[in-house]
Amino acid sequence: MAVKTLTIDGRLVSAMEGQTVLEAAQEAGIHIPTLCHLDGVSDLGACRMCLVELGNSPKLQPACVLKVAEGMEVRTNSDRLRKYRKMIVELLLSERNHVCSVCVSNGHCELQDMAVELGVDHSRFDYIYPVERVDITHQRFGVDHNRCILCGRCVRVCDEVEGAHTWDMAGRGAKSFVITDMNQPWGDSTSCTSCGKCVQACPTGAIFQKGATVGEMQKDRTRLEFIVTAREKKQWIG
Amino acid sequence: MDRVKVATVWLGGCSGCHMSFLDMDEFLIDLAEKIQVVYSPIADMKEFPESVDVTLVEGSVANEDHVELCHKIRAASRVVISFGDCAVTGNVPAMRNPLGDPEKILQLVYVDRADTHPIAPKEAGIVPKLVDRVRPVHEEIDVDYFIPGCPPSSSRIKEALTNLLEMGETHLTGENLRFG
């Protein structure tokens, strides 16, 4: 496969054809903030945290789905990008009811971490306070839509790693929400294998293990990594 | 040199931020040489003073008294700081917002679900009326600085106050910004 050479933040970086700018940056040790990206599943550019500037183009591109090209000039950390990323986190915080102090994931939340990283000390946008559902019909897990940022990790991990495709996305825009089966209670789902991959994949406290109280829900990605690595390296074949 | 005039205010919150303030322990002795507390729920002053250097506002804007006090604070204070998650985000008090009409919530909590004495708190001139939507302080008045946290740790408050007293401004960074 051909090697492409590009510049990221003024540094010359080589990447394999077909790799994304995010992958090339990560391999070169250049940090690009991400929220919807999850190692081991496909990328879809949902959260826009990884937006980068490209050459002289005024258009910003999500690094997670942008393929590397020869001579590409990428900037990952300009004032403009930092401003937009901060704005995205503030919009996410005001779009649903994120109450860190009573959340199972308080202190272990990727949205909270992102607010810290980007210097969010308050939201400039008025909070919407929508009415959101909480589904605790599943025997072991629950989903609290108040805390969901619509990253779609649960949908992808369930489809691509577990192969069950219990989760999907319904609705449009800010009114989108994740569903189980045909928008049925999770506990009634016939496709769910109760494997818990969606729980581990979820960046916030939206999908959680029952019985966890404030700050107790720590996501464990090593189980996902174990399966994905085994599959990529064909460790279970032959 | 005159000591900096500091007020602390308790709106719709649990007073945990004030408890965390007191948790600064011996630093409070150093602080007492630099600041003068001119209004606070832990000091006996009835009226908000006409001129204050710095006001720390704990709690969200949840009732009509809070709205009135907020505007008094802004008019009288050189610097207003949102102190803790309720002031910064609305936090727990704002969890009633998706439930709608505050009168219905009072009815539900104090009357329908009461085991004894089913009476909603209501007394003209004494119990302030709830506002329709609980808001963070900066949605009501301009706020200069923010100290997030539920409650902000005493070290975080100390950092913010030290910055303010030494440099005249206080922009917290990194872990000192963590909500919750």
Task: Explain the overall architecture.
Chain A is of the alpha+beta class and 238 residues long. Chain A has 2 domains: 3-77, Ubiquitin-like (UB roll) (Roll); 99-232, Alpha-Beta Plaits (2-Layer Sandwich). Helix content of chain A is 25%, strand content 16%. Chain A has a 5-stranded mixed β-sheet, covered by helices on one side. In chain A, strands 6-7-10 form a 3-stranded antiparallel β-sheet. A two-stranded antiparallel sheet of chain A has the order 8-9. In chain A, a hairpin with a 6-residue loop joins strand 3 and strand 4 (61-62). In chain A, helix 2 (79-95) packs across helix 3. Chain A is globular and about 55 Å long. Chain B is α/β, with parallel strands linked by helices and 180 residues long. Chain B has one domain: NADH:ubiquinone oxidoreductase-like, 20kDa subunit (Rossmann fold, 3-Layer(aba) Sandwich), CATH 3.40.50. Helix content of chain B is 32%, strand content 21%. Chain B contains 6 helices and 7 strands; from the N terminus they run βααβββαβααββα. In chain B, the strands form 2 sheets. A 5-stranded parallel β-sheet of chain B has the order 2-1-3-5-7, sandwiched between helices. Classes of the chains: A alpha+beta (238), B alpha/beta (180).
Basic shape of chain A: globular
N-C termini distance of chain A: 26 Å
The chain-level structural class of chain A is alpha+beta
Instruction: Summarize the biggest pleated sheet of chain A.
Output: 5 strands, mixed
The helicity of chain A comes to: 10-25%
Brief summary of the model shown:
With 238 residues, chain A is of the alpha+beta class.
